[in-house]
Amino acid sequence: MKVRVLQRDEREATGVREPGDLRRVHRNPAPQLHPFEKAKEATRAVNAAKLDRVFARPFVAALEGHCDGITALARSPTRLNSLVSGAADGEVRLWNVPERRALVTMVGHTRAVQGLAVSRDGSLAVSCSDDCTARLWRLPVAHKVGSQGGATEEALMEYRAKAGLRGVDHHWQKDLFATAGAGVSLWSHERANPVNQFDWGVDSVISVRFNPVEADVFASTGADRSFVLYDLRVATPLRKLIMQTRNNALCWNPIEAFNFTVANEDTNLYTYDMRKLDRALCVHQDHVSAVMDVDYAPTGREFVSGSYDRSVRIFPYNGGHSREVYHTKRMQRVFCVRFSGDASYVASGSDDMNVRLWKAHASEQMGTLLPREKNKKAYNKALLERYKHLPEVKRITRHRHLPKGIYKTAKLHRQIVNADKRKEKNVIAHSRRGSVKPKAARTKKIVREQE
Question: pTM here?
Fold first, then answer.
């Protein structure tokens, strides 16, 4: 049937027609001939919104094989079909995503893998663990591994630290990687000891991330509720911001070099501009428990977050609320999330020993589309964008089914927030004018900034 339609489209393009073909309709766009054009388009927009929810099937596959909870994920910058995962039993696996099988099992750590990173060319991976070691692994190419896979790989190098390591990230241009532990340490591939160490009064550093645009700039989050900015070209940290609650993870925007987003324990995510840290650019709300990880899409227009509330959410880079929420009955606490290299898929690792793959757009049809299908989808997308503020369309596109626990907790959270707002409003109304000033949500959680 698809071949028949393709041939029909080719004949229409060349002007050749056969009996039974769909005739091309020549439309006169004169407005006086279409008095109900807006009403018809509004109805089509409602129908497009309904179809978008009907065909929403975000879950793609589950990569099974680990024997403990997934604690770390990393993707290759150069290979779309590769994904690296680390588990709480110290095992690291390289996955062939299209075939949904493990290519290589890398065994060496004796405790939980807390961080994973892949080098700029995709040939090497770095892992760190609670066993006070970081290991360098070689990543084979998928087509060079046998069809059975499952081979065991040994580490190329082992780097020993003085304390357990909580996070790692690789430099985007050099053979360097940074680890987070008792402090921030900078390592070279060829040396067994750190090249440089950074410390700013924090007993434990949780995560570290390099800037993909300004490669020598990186940031870390600490157990003292702070995040710190560093530059390899100077010997000391640059700036430090302390918040009311702890930041679990951090990710830079790959398009906007100065902006980054932190995942916080207070159920929110905060986007900052590193040049002006006294105010958040945006506060991203919707999670009902601590946010554990965050990762930007390569386009820089949206990011994905995983939370302790057993859900995965996708946010616009400048939106206060998520546009998608993914969950399953069996998925437990989500510790790590990653976008794919083409921004079409999302990977999540949770406590139930599975790596799950999701569509970035829940109703998107993955595969080859016919020309008429492409035109129809583009038309429906334009209709939804044009009429997104229409109440009927807005109600359908915003609705998401939530698990009972998340729904009740979100409802309770809204009641608490509304009560706080009402109390603040009453205090201002019954105080001397100007004596009480309300604090904006973008500055409320900031304690102080240090330089």
Answer: 0.89
